[in-house]
Design brief:
This protein has 94 residues and is an all-alpha fold. It contains 4 helices and no strands. The C terminus is likely disordered.
């Protein structure tokens, strides 16, 4: 898995919520673009933690994190943990 794959999982989650606005999708794209630009497409950056990455994003953009960007970070981590938990469950049942 990489950041682009993780982004697709978040998009699938957003789609399931039938959001009326594209704001979260747009912010998700900006967040993923930032992470890939700074760290590459791998997931190693996620080990820095959500709060650290949010702070780095604020510094890079020069403004306080808005709700949609915060949601994007939160959902990236939610999907990452869900996927990791599912992978561990599958491998432990083999």
């Amino acid at each position: 898995m990489d950041l682009k794959s993780l982004e697709k999982l978040v998009i699938r989650e957003y789609d399931s919520r039938s959001l009326k606005s594209r704001v979260r999708y747009n912010e998700l794209s900006k967040v993923v673009h930032f992470l890939i630009g700074k760290y590459g497409n791998g997931l190693d950056c996620m080990s820095k933690g959500k709060d650290t990455l949010k702070h780095e994003y604020e510094l890079a953009t020069g403004k306080k994190l808005n709700d949609a960007a915060s949601s994007a970070f939160n959902e990236l981590f939610n999907q990452l943990h869900t996927h990791v938990d599912e992978s561990m469950h599958v491998s432990s049942s083999l």
